[in-house]
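NAD kinase structure dump, as promised
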Amino acid sequence: MVCDVLNFEKLALTYSQSDRARKAAKELCERYDFVPVEQADVIIALGGDGTMLDALHDMLDVDRILPVFGINLGTVGFLMNRYHGSNGLIERLTEAKKMPVAPLKMEVITQKGDRHYAYAVNEVSLLRETFQTAKLEVSVNGRVRIAELAGDGILLSTPVGSTAYNLSANGPILPLDSRMLALTPISPFRPRRWRGAILPEKSRVSFRVNEPAKRPVAAVADSKEVRDVAEVHIEIARDKEMCLLFDPHQTLDERMLAEQFVT
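structure tokens r here:
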């Protein structure tokens, strides 16, 4: 696995186009020699959580997975470390805590029968395309659990993504080592009492769109959207496991715990 053996000899740098990120990138380039991503052992990502997700998806697209050390020069920076200037970067990498993260793999079959595939680090969401309520059949491991969920949609979240869209939809926050997934409805109308489920990460979750012509639905894996879907199948892509690096005193476990006590 990518987290098992780490080498920090060759660093690549990626950064957002914000003024803060570009300034920090210039400072780091003056102190360290960076190489192209295809030659690197680890990626340094400067920006916010969007920058981190972009870096992870870029690696998934070319099937070359490297560990990533994110530095927050954005807004929230939930997946990032603090910026302490250009000094001590190698020492921080050497002492960093490793966090393996496996994405979701989404398979979509459209109303025309086309198949699309995409990966999601945070979540896969199904959303109604029009004013018409979405009606979805929900299955887990080949068994129909809800014949018809009516509402704005539904999402399946990883532990990393459980504090993002999932939390906004009143889904549960999952500990990173829980090996669970959060299945959360979005503005559900029927069944009224169902508020979601927590599933083992080995689960295969499927959705079928009821009345797709009248009630079109889009499927979104993080930021990649496929419209007019008929079926969606989702499972963990363990073969695409990635590695995030964090300062020892600044782990995602503590951040997730703190999120649950925000008033």
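The chain has two domains: 11-101+241-259, 104-239.
lmk if u need the other ones
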